[in-house]
Specification:
The chain is an alpha/beta fold. It contains ten helices and eleven strands. It has a six-stranded parallel sheet with strand order 1-11-8-7-5-6. A three-stranded parallel sheet has the order 3-2-4, sandwiched between helices. It has a two-stranded antiparallel ribbon with strand order 9-10. A hairpin with a 5-residue loop joins strand 9 and strand 10. The longest helix is centred in the first third of the chain and has 21 residues. The radius of gyration is 19 Å and the shape is globular. Bound molecules: NADP nicotinamide-adenine-dinucleotide phosphate. The site of NADP nicotinamide-adenine-dinucleotide phosphate has 25 residues, from helix 10.
Length: 289
C-alpha cells in the first residue's frame, strides 16, 4: 500500500487565492484591506524564514503587512508598549510576535497582552478557551490548518481514534481540542506517556507535534491510518523532515502529509484567513477586545 499524499502546498495556495478574491471584493465595495502587524526580534535564521513567508503571503492575498524588525536586545517593556499601541490602532486587525523570543522576554506576558480580538495566531487563553467550550473564534493556525487538510481528503473523521503526540500550548493542546470538536476520540501523548508505540498502533489518525526526527516509527502506523506530521526538524545535511519516519509510514498509511510541503504552508494560509476574519468580526462587533 502506498499512501495518498496530502499536498499542503497546493491546498494552501488555493486558500490564499480564495482570500485574495474576498479582499478584492471588499476593496471593490469601498472597504479596506485587512492589516497584519508582524513583529520579529533578533536575527534567528529560521524565524526570519517564517516571517518572510508570512509577509509574502500577505503580498499574495492583498493583506497590508506592517513590519517591526527589532533588535534582540529590545526590552520587554518596549515590546509591550508596541503591542499596546497596535492594540489601540483601529487600522490594525492582527498582531503576530514571532517565536521563539529572547530569554529576557516572558512569552506568556506577550501573548496575554495582545488583544484577543487581534490574536491571529490563536494563542491567547481567551481564544484557546473558546475552542475548549466549542465556540471557536480565532483558532490556532497550525491545528486549524490540519483540520482543513483533513477535510481536503474527504474522509469522515467522526468517531476516529486520534492520537496527538505533543501537548504544547501552541500546537499539541489546541490540536487535541480541534480533533475533539471534530468528533474524534482523542488521546494526547507527551514526555511521560508510558507506551507511545501502543497508542500510535491503535490510532486511525496520528498527529505528531514534537520536534524529534524519527520519534514515531513507520512500522507503528496502523494500515489505512491518516498520518499528519507537524514536526519540523533540520538534519545535518540541511534537509528538513518531520517526527514520523516518512518512507515506511507512507507504505502503511492511507493518507500522509510530507515535510516540507504539508502542514507548514497551511499554517501560513490559516494565519491569513484569521487576519481577514479578525477584521470581519470586529466590524460586526462580534469579538472581545
Ligand atoms: P514544543 O513546545 O517543544 O513542544 C513539544 C511537545 O512534545 C511537548 O508537549 C513535549 O511534551 C512533547 N514531547 C517531547 N518529547 C516527547 C516524547 N519523547 N514523546 C512524546 N512527546 C514528547 O514544540 P511545538 O512548538 O509544539 O512544536 C512541535 C514541532 O512542530 C516542532 O518541530 C516545531 O518546529 C513544529 N511546528 C511546525 C509548525 C508547522 O506549521 N508545520 C508550526 C508550529 C510548530 P512535554 O510537554 O511533556 O514536555
Amino acid at each position: 500500500m502506498s499512501a495518498n499524499i496530502i499536498n499542503g502546498k497546493a491546498i494552501a495556495e488555493a486558500t490564499l487565492d480564495e482570500i485574495k478574491s474576498l479582499i478584492e471584493k471588499r476593496l471593490a465595495q469601498g472597504q479596506r484591506a485587512p492589516t497584519l502587524a508582524v513583529i520579529l526580534l533578533g536575527t534567528d535564521a529560521a524565524s526570519a524564514i517564517y516571517v518572510r513567508n508570512k509577509r509574502l503571503a500577505c503580498e499574495k492575498t492583498g493583506i497590508r503587512s506592517l513590519a517591526y524588525d527589532l533588535p534582540a536586545s529590545t526590552s520587554e517593556a518596549d515590546l509591550l508598549a508596541l503591542i499596546q499601541q497596535l492594540n489601540d490602532d483601529d487600522e490594525v486587525d492582527g498582531i503576530l510576535v514571532q517565536s521563539p523570543l529572547p530569554a529576557h522576554i516572558e512569552e506568556k506576558k506577550i501573548i496575554e497582552t495582545i488583544s484577543a480580538s487581534k490574536d491571529v495566531d490563536g494563542f491567547h487563553p481567551y481564544n484557546i478557551g473558546r475552542l475548549a467550550v466549542r465556540q471557536p473564534t480565532l483558532r490556532s493556525c497550525t491545528p486549524y490548518g490540519v483540520i482543513k487538510l483533513l477535510q481536503s481528503t474527504g474522509v469522515n473523521i467522526l468517531g476516529l481514534d486520534a492520537v496527538v503526540v505533543g501537548v504544547s500550548n501552541h500546537v499539541g493542546r489546541p490540536m487535541a481540542l480541534e480533533l475533539l470538536l471534530a468528533g474524534c476520540t482523542v488521546t494526547s501523548c507527551h514526555r511521560h506517556t508510558k507506551d507511545l508505540r501502543a497508542a500510535v498502533e491503535r490510532a486511525d489518525l496520528v498527529v505528531a507535534a514534537v520536534g524529534k526526527a524519527g520519534l514515531i516509527k513507520g512500522e507503528w502506523i496502523k494500515p489505512g491510518a491518516i498520518v499528519i506530521d507537524i514536526g519540523i526538524n533540520r538534519l545535518q545535511d540541511g534537509s528538513l523532515c518531520g517526527d514520523i519516519e516518512f518512507a515506511t509510514a507512507s507504505q502503511r498509511a492511507a493518507w500522509i502529509t510530507p515535510v516540507p510541503g504539508g502542514v507548514g504552508p497551511m499554517t501560513v494560509a490559516t494565519l491569513m484567513q484569521n487576519t481577514l476574519k479578525a477584521l470581519e468580526l470586529r466590524e460586526a462587533g462580534k469579538l472581545a477586545s
